[in-house]
Amino acid sequence: METFDWIVIGNGLAGAALSYELARLGLSVLLVDDGNPNSATRCSYGGIAHWSGTNAITRELCQAGIERHRQLSDELGATTEFRELDLLLTLPPDVDGASLTEQYGRFAIAPRLISPQEAQDIEPQLNINAIGGAFTVKHGHVNPVKTIDGFNQAFRRLGGQQMLTAVTGLVRIKDRVTGIMTATQAYAADNVVVAAGGYSRTLLRQTGLSVPLYHTHAEVVTLPQVDQPLRALIMPGVATRFEAEATASDPATDGLWDGPYREISPPILDAGMIQFLDGSTYIGQVSRFRTDLGAETIDAAQSEASIRQGIMPLVPCLANVPGQWRHCLVTFSRDGLPLIGPLPGVEGLHLFAGFTSPFAMLLPIAQRFASWVQGGQQNGSDSLLGQMLITRFSNSPNNPPPR
Ligand SMILES: Cc1cc2nc3c(=O)[nH]c(=O)nc-3n(C[C@H](O)[C@H](O)[C@H](O)COP(=O)(O)OP(=O)(O)OC[C@H]3O[C@@H](n4cnc5c(N)ncnc54)[C@H](O)[C@@H]3O)c2cc1C
To answer: Do 197 and 289 lie in a common domain?
Structure first.
């Protein structure tokens, strides 16, 4: 049986980019994905918030990320449909935008406050009566599906192997992981990296490991054909998501994520939308903080109705366009940085998940991660990656280090 240098589990943005970077270094890599059409990446808007760095680490990553996106289609030999467009962060009529200026001023490139009329000049489909103003900034954008496809094609050209099947478990011999199991056979590798997004925590738990990763159930409606052109990416200017994520990832509630089904905090609606170059348009999004993985307990019709209700006042022309409700899991960590690197106490097993703003920051992290592991994983040899290691949460009394 062939022993790969690396097996990468998950072909979302994280696994697609990382498998490519590992193959680019001449390593033998097997990329395995279960083919779920509703991965977070496949449901994503694909916005690149390269302006949103708030500290030295995120500013550096955002800058490196946008530079990479600008030349990625040429590098991969396949278009990612990269472009730069206007982001409109809309404010409800009763919100005084000036009171938020300081908050927006902390970003590397501060979005500027504009009037409802100026917002409509940018996006003619926007209903000015539904907003009190907006913040705007130039945003990057790619087609997420084409970006993954581009990475996969380049990966295979480099000799990488891709397989469509679910990983049912990890092969663990004492304190070493030596490969993966699928329904039909096992595959061996010197290293396995879990890049399975919102499924990563559960997959690792099956091997007796606990990691502080959390997820939302995210719901969008995809409208395959919209005749009216939309120019801007629209998102709410007053976001409740970060507060809700902080509640859901509180160390005090960490254990609930490994127990029976619980709703950790109430659902939120971020009314947003993006149109892709082919006219297809995504409207969203509901996020639910539930510990289960499936969509069985979610009322799809009600969810679609609430998404449509959220966007109807903003962009009335989209309200009745037929579409398909979709559900996916989006993973996040407790501090906004991903959880990457070797799992302490288990040789040969790594994690690469929990990204916030992955379209802005993940590509340089994948590149650095690949160089770092090829160089022998000397902790500290990449001080930036050193701050994303799983071990940073190990000292929390409520969150014991991974077993
Ligand atoms: C509506 C919406 C809009 C968004 N907009 C943006 C945006 O504008 N900008 C931005 O940066 N981010 C955005 N995000 C977030 C972003 O899309 C995700 O954080 C990112 O795509 C996650 O990538 P991932 O590779 O970690 O996970 P995923 O894309 O979920 O990939 C994980 C993969 O692993 C596979 N997998 C899981 N378990 C197994 C198994 N046992 N065996 C084999 N395969 C397995 C899954 O099927 C999946 O293909 C958005 C998300 C949503 C839902």
So the answer is: no
